[in-house]
Amino acid sequence: MIRIGIIGCGSTIGIARSHIRAYACCKDAVITAVYDLLEGRAEGYIRDMRLSDAKACASLEELFSLCDAVSICTPNCTHVDLTVAALKAGKHVLCEKPFAPTPAECDQAIRYAKLCGKVAMIGLCYRDIPGLVYMKQLIDEGKMGRIFFARQEQGGDRIASPQVKLEWRMQKDLSGPGALADFGSHMMDICDYLLRDSCGPIEEITCMQTTCIEEREIIGKPGKTGPVTNDDVACWICRTESGTLYNFTASRIGASFVLEIVGEGGKMIFHGDKPFELTLQCKEKNGGYAQQPQAVPVPESCYGADPNAPRTPFEINFYYEIRQFLDAIQCGRDTQLTLERGRYIQALIQTAQDAADCGETVPVDAEG
Ligand SMILES: NC(=O)c1ccc[n+]([C@@H]2O[C@H](COP(=O)([O-])OP(=O)(O)OC[C@H]3O[C@@H](n4cnc5c(N)ncnc54)[C@H](O)[C@@H]3O)[C@@H](O)[C@H]2O)c1
Q1: Model pTM score
Q2: Which domains does the chain have, with CATH numbers?
């Protein structure tokens, strides 16, 4: 049984809840320790989520003394320090994305991870969604032929109301970029993972951003507002080594989750609210579109018949992520979601941010 410590018991999204629900689906893990910087939050989580084996810890040191592995579910600016502290304490680490506000900050944690030999994983948790696994299979089998372009939109609408207060994620020094990093880290990871073998790495990026709600009320200071210092919406285009274009829109004030990939073999479309389905419209490589688009169920071979896996959007992402983390710990199996991968994705995000700042197309200066 792997003993898990949860760091960060949030109340904005509170992503720790998704981690906890995913661990609850795994018979080989138990949550034994919970910690948050703010008093009372750990106790609240234990009560609300019925964590009968967990202790609300008064310090990180106490949490480390009660667990083998941690999920880090805190704001972006804390990820590196907490990862280093957990690795130093001999714990396996699953750290939420984005890894850090800037790529350079990630290096310290990567150095410790190499030294300590523990599993150190970054929470880019979308790749194993069955529909995306099926997309990869079709691409790798050559069904799409040469890829012409990809288009992806992702985001959320929780903070669409100007009444939502000024959270850490709206402040550049605590978060890094806004929607660009928050959703863009998943988006870049998905597209690069699916298409790298066909299209090569991303070589240059152009980007524009906008902040639609520029002032919000400061938490704990009724009537007093402060500026939002990063993007609500980001649109960026990447060109890969083969010349393929990826077109991305990330928005935290309303967006759908759609990924469309178009190539010689036709179109495939994934909708985030249908994780077990793709819309396919096939065509002859040297011909046009003779068929209508068809909704196709993902074959079971793409996700296995795991009876514990939830079937609901979002929850399913976290289940496969946590399963991968636990398997890596137990079998000594490597995970693809290394801290180096987290850093590479941050380097792509930083390139997009630089492009937005200077208003030019910027070459990617990172390998991964
Ligand atoms: N994988 C995904 O799809 C996904 C979705 C949402 C959020 N996230 C990521 O999860 C992380 C947390 O986001 P959230 O929305 O849950 O935040 P949140 O604001 O809801 O919760 C963060 C919690 O961390 C606590 N905290 C801050 N600093 C701490 C520290 N040093 N030690 C212990 N606790 C500390 C805060 O008190 C707060 O309770 C972010 O990095 C975010 O990008 C990932």
Answers
A1: 0.97
A2: 2-124+323-337 (3.40.50.720), 130-309+346-358 (3.30.360.10)
36 lines ligand 1 (CB under 6 A): yes
State the Cα–Cα distance between residues 139 and 130, nearest whole angstrom.
14
Ligand 1 centroid distance, CA of 9 (Å) = 7
pLDDT for res 367: 85
Expressed in angstroms and rounded, the spacing between residue 266 Cα and the centre of ligand 1 is 40
Q: Is the CB of 74 under 6 A from ligand 1?
A: yes
125 C-beta closer than 6 A to ligand 1: yes
Q: What is the pLDDT of residues 4-35, one digit of tens each?
A: 999 999 999 999 999 999 999 999 999 999 99
Atom number, ligand 1, closest to the C-alpha of residue 124: 1
Is the distance from the beta carbon of residue 96 to the nearest atom of ligand 1 less than 6 Å?
Answer: yes
CB 83 within 8 A of CB 109: yes
Give residue-wise pLDDT tens across range 212-228.
999 999 999 999 999 99
Angle between helices 339-358 and 107-116 (to 10 degrees): 170
